[in-house]
């Protein structure tokens, strides 16, 4: 039986299940109308597709975008690795709020043109390609949210999407030096810098107001999403144990890792151990949302799936729980003082794991501090990038790492040696 349980089969199986669930929850016409609404949405941060198109249409959006990327990976004859797995699950997560097949396609074309210009194999840029979809809202905004005539907005969206795809492989290498690998969402930081430029041009030159869209979310599918994510997490653990009943014995291997880029747990510990870690991190994420009374919606589901994806690429309980506790501390303080918890702060408890390597390197207390600082800083970065970078927490995490790592290294210089 275990001979047929392969990591690669999870995504085809997920595609089938997502499509079945989509049509179980809604009628075909409702799904079609909702899917069209998703495709024509400005999609800027935060746009909850569950509110825009409903659960059936959103699940259909997730399945179509996953199918597109899975076919691409198979066409390029690439094996499943930790980074590719993280990229696919992150795409699936953000297909709940911000990504669709229409707004990511120009970005892919830009990355392809970059590979031709640099004369490198297209498949060598697959990691950048998967994570570069986080800047997809700039395409949708110019097409459907700028107020420009369609004959201007559509070509502008396509052109800027292609430009973004072309630039991101060039910029991401340099941005890695800024945070020294302690921000797992390096492409998110890179896209934040590029979005900052776009935001400045659109506001300064074209006098566009970028913050007029409805950012409300839909929590009506809380129970369904809670059940689906819990089952999904348990499935990974079960499949990992079926493939290797002794996989748990190797689990301490990844717990010793700081998680700093590049930490490929599929490569270092095997697919079975990575799958178990994916499931465990999913359950931990769900537990945090339950204990903090955070209702599940599109952005929160995106956070859970992103954590699960990066559980094959740098995140594990030892380096993630401290930063999540730090973020949770600020959320509880906000509630205790009578202030309303924003959706940005709620999902920050999950996306704060971008700085998990800080806890992995410097320990529990420093991790809690990093998580606390992260959620304080994240709301400040959003206005800068105009909502075009879906990975706003990755944008903020770059600054958090750049600020804290030199301080933490100095405080612990007798215990920790720089390994760059």
Please give a quick description of this structure.
The protein has 420 residues and is mainly alpha-helical.
Explain what the structure shows:
70% of the residues lie in helices and 0% in strands. With 420 residues, it is an all-alpha fold. It starts with 9 loop residues before the first helix and ends in a 9-residue tail after the last helix.
Main β-sheet: number of strands, strand sense, barrel status? none
Instruction: Report strand %.
Output: under 5%
How many individual helices?
A: 19
Element-level helix/strand string: HHHHHHHHHHHHHHHHHHH
Kindly state the number of beta strands. Answer: 0
Low-confidence stretches: 1-5
Write the layout of secondary structure elements.
Blueprint: H1 10-25, H2 28-39, H3 49-75, H4 82-94, H5 101-118, H6 126-132, H7 137-145, H8 150-179, H9 186-204, H10 222-243, H11 251-255, H12 265-269, H13 271-291, H14 298-310, H15 317-336, H16 343-351, H17 356-362, H18 364-385, H19 392-411
Helix pairs in contact: 1-3, 2-3, 3-4, 4-6, 4-14, 5-7, 5-8, 7-8, 8-9, 9-19, 10-13, 13-14, 13-15, 14-16, 15-16, 15-17, 15-18, 16-18, 17-18, 18-19
């Amino acid at each position: 039986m275990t001979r047929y349980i392969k990591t690669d089969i999870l995504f085809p199986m997920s595609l089938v299940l997502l499509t079945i669930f989509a049509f179980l929850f809604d009628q075909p016409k409702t799904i079609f109308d909702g899917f069209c609404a998703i495709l024509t949405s400005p999609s800027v941060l935060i746009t909850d597709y569950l509110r825009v198109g409903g659960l059936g249409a959103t699940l259909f959006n997730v399945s179509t975008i996953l199918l597109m990327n899975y076919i691409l990976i198979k066409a390029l004859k690439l094996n499943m690795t930790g980074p590719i797995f993280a990229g696919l699950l992150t795409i699936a997560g953000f297909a709940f709020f911000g990504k669709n097949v229409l707004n990511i396609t120009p970005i892919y074309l830009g990355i392809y043109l970059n590979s031709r210009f640099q004369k490198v194999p297209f498949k060598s840029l697959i990691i950048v390609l998967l994570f570069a979809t986080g800047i997809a809202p700039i395409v949708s905004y110019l097409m459907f949210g700028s107020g420009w005539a369609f004959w201007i907005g559509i070509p502008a969206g396509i052109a800027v999407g292609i430009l973004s795809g072309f630039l991101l492989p060039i910029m991401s290498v340099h941005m890695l030096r800024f945070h020294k690998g302690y921000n797992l969402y390096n492409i998110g930081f890179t896209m934040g810098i590029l979005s900052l430029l776009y935001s400045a041009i659109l506001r300064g030159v074209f006098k566009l107001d970028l913050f007029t869209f409805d950012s409300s979310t839909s929590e009506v599918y809380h129970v369904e999403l809670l059940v689906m994510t819990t089952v999904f997490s348990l499935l990974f653990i079960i499949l990992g144990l079926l493939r290797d009943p002794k996989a748990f014995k190797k689990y301490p291997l990844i717990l010793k890792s700081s998680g700093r880029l590049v930490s490929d747990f599929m490569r270092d510990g095997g697919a079975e151990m990575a799958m178990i870690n994916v499931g465990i991190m999913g359950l931990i994420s769900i537990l945090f949302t339950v204990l903090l009374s955070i209702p599940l919606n599109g952005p929160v589901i995106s956070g859970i799936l992103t954590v699960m994806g990066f559980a094959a690429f740098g995140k594990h309980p030892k380096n993630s729980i401290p930063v999540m506790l730090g973020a949770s501390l600020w959320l509880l303080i906000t509630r205790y003082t009578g202030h309303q918890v924003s959706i940005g702060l709620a999902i920050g408890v999950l996306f704060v794991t971008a700085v998990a390597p800080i806890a992995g390197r410097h320990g529990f207390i420093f991790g809690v501090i990093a998580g606390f600082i992260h959620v304080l800083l994240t709301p400040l970065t959003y206005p800068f990038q105009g909502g075009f970078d879906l990975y706003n927490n990755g944008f903020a995490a770059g600054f958090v790492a750049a600020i804290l790592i030199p301080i933490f290294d100095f405080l612990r210089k007798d215990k920790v040696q720089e390994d760059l």
